Amino acid sequence: MVILTLLGVTLDLTIRYKVQADSFDQAERVASQWSAAARNGIVPHRMPAYPPVDLVQIVDARMRVVDSSRAASDVRPLSTLRPPPDDRFQRRIECEEGRRCVMLMAIRLTPEADAGVVFAGLPEPSILSTHSLEYFIAGGILVLVSVAAWITWALVGRTLRPVDAIRARISEITVSDLSLRVPVPPGRDELAQLSITANQTLARLESAVRQQREFASTTSHELRSPLAGLRTQLEEALTYPDEVDPRETIRTALTATDRLEAIVNDLLVLARLRATDAPPEPIDLGDLVCAEVKLQPHRLPMNVRATAGLMIRGSRMQLIRVLDNLLVNAQRHAESAVEITVDRDGDQAVVAVTDDGPGVDPANRERIFERFVRLDDSRRRDPGGSGLGLAISRDIARAHHGTLRVEDSAKGARFVLRLPLADRPGGPADPRPAPGALTPARKADGGTIGNIGD
């Protein structure tokens, strides 16, 4: 409306200026013709008119009408204007009360003092004397603004209808029911992309909530079992004090407490993994593995072959947790020794921990990474375990954009951790032995083995 108003004002002023200029030009042409005729003395008493300039008069120095057209008075001059000798052509609009204004052109015949004046004029056009032009322009502006407003209302309403549908559907979604999805409007515009993104977010949220519920249910079950056993033992000791050995009861209660403590500690680790947002740091994976093997308590020899210079980026404490879980697991199931290798495979660093124990059945290779899953052999070798160690380790590997799985081995179990290598300005990894390798002994294949005592 503002733009159209500015255009309307400009149009109104332009039309008024054009009409006024054209009217004065017509009066000037007629006045110039009769001025030349008057100087030549060939002016009739009743001067013919040249419509629309039908008011023509010639007056003398005393402003008396000498000659006039039929429409003009032959007694009263059209104006009292008398142009000076140095400005013989002058324009004027003469208005009288109760009468229509006249647009006049006055031309002094000669510069002499007794020279007459020629008046030529026409009634002011109605477009100038009334406000019809302004009314017409204002009406056009109102019509255009109304049409634009209606079109805008219709287009915006059609555009926002999918938004209202999305809003209504989102208002129906609750934590108890995340299966609903927002409607996707046709096309590939921003609203369609927004709906697709919202549905993807809802799908991820539904999956996360489902996992949280399953985890809470499983955790409750795992915690209930040792708590129920502990309660039963304590109630039995109180009910039958003469039949129950208190030392045996306390020893059994401590075993159940250890089990609960292990579960709670691993649950805290899982919570920290989800909550932590520490920036990654550059880590030499070979050095880290060698240092962790050196600090690890062991009952069997642990042989390390590590390639130095394999730089990754991640959380040192989380990766130590993974290595600790893998090394403890290998020590628990090995019969004579544990082999640890750190090598490069394309753009990945590969840590393999191999024991010579009974191994893992192929049917259980994925199942052992589920939370609270413990095979019979694991329960026998470590009754106080929580069943969360390998699940935590895989979560850490995934958080570092890597993988952790059980791969084929000639004997025993082979756990393989793969992590993406960080970009190094020095080029490919340095094949020299890692500084942390202990008691290096050269092998025929050029690798390095660190033998950690039995």
From TrEMBL:
Record domain Histidine kinase: where: 218-423
One cellular-component annotation, GO: plasma membrane
Catalytic activity, reaction form: ATP + protein L-histidine = ADP + protein N-phospho-L-histidine
Subcellular location: Cell membrane
Matching InterPro entries: HAMP_dom, HATPase_C_sf, HATPase_dom, His_kinase_dom, HisK_dim/P_dom, HisK_dim/P_sf, Sig_transdc_His_kin-like_C, TCS_sensor_his_kinase
Methyltransferase found in the keyword field: no
Keyword annotations of the record: Kinase, Membrane, Phosphoprotein, Transferase, Transmembrane, Transmembrane helix, Two-component regulatory system
Listed SUPFAM superfamilies: ATPase domain of HSP90 chaperone/DNA topoisomerase II/histidine kinase, Homodimeric domain of signal transducing histidine kinase
Assigned EC number: 2.7.13.3
Disordered: region residues: 421-454
Molecular functions per Gene Ontology: phosphorelay sensor kinase activity
Positions of transmembrane segments: 135-156
Pfam (any one): HAMP
PANTHER family linked to this entry: SENSOR HISTIDINE KINASE TRCS (PTHR45436:SF5), SENSOR HISTIDINE KINASE YKOH (PTHR45436)
The protein's name in its UniProt record: histidine kinase
Species this chain originates from: Nonomuraea aridisoli
